[in-house]
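Take a sample.
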Amino acid sequence: MSYESGTPQPDSSSPDHTDLPRRTGRVHIAARSRGIDVTALGSLALHLPHGAASLAVVFLVSYAFGRLTGLPWWILLGSWVVSGALAFHRPCERVLARWLFGLRYPTPEEHERLRPVWREVTARAGVDADSYQLWIEESDEVNAMAAAGHIVGVTSHSLKTLTPAQLGGVLAHELGHHTRGHAWATLLSLWYALPARLAWRVLLRLVALLNRLPTGAAAVVIGVCGAALVALATATYGLVFLPLATPYLVAAMSRRSELRADEHAAGLGFATQLMAVLHRECDREETRRATATALGAAFTKEGLVARLLDSHPDVHTRLHHLQAHLENRR
């Protein structure tokens, strides 16, 4: 279907939505607009070593379980392989939203404020608004999230304090994470890396037990493990050490995906509104720091490692890219 005016017209009796920016022209509405961009592909690629390790772990567990129970080992392994599809299953998403992300359904009042803005944003993007589920996070921060295949969450503080246009900019950013594949790629990457991460934690616990072994036995175990590691590194041309750099590369890819989502919001006409939100949060952070300093608290500058592991770019970088987008459109 198509939408001639480009935006749904809000009720004239509801002035809360009059500051939403307008766009004219024909917009084609699709049931879904889910794609995948280079940052989502990059995130998936960076997690391939973890996925391969997880596959090996699940295979060993499945094989042992099959030997103990007599059931075919491939049932458990196959169930895990296809389990990622549950991230797009609505009932499973509701469980994730409630128990993993700590979200709740909007109250009737919140729904009345949130839904017209969401319909405005999705109409501009050419997406069916009902394809996604709107959720609320109880928080005193200005924030929002996109997760799984259809989850869009916004904090209660954002809903109370942002203007409709500013809220539209935040929601357009989160919609960008969905339409560009960031949300589902991130969730699937974490899910399929989970067995390997759990196995790594168990291995670290076993290594910690070496302190309780006699010196001779501990030396033998360390020697065998060291030889196995050297052999594995030689056989894989050092690629076995790639997961050590993965957290830094994943964080860099995440920062790039945030800029891509900002670009999506700007493309829908919300660059100025999103910049206002970022300026507001920057001023809020400066006020916090000034208050803490006045009370005698010391602020330590974020270290290099912490910055490299940060999943979001700093506010000034985001503002710079949004300003560049505005200037390019003039």
Observations:
- The chain has 13 helices and five strands.
- The longest helix spans residues 182-208.
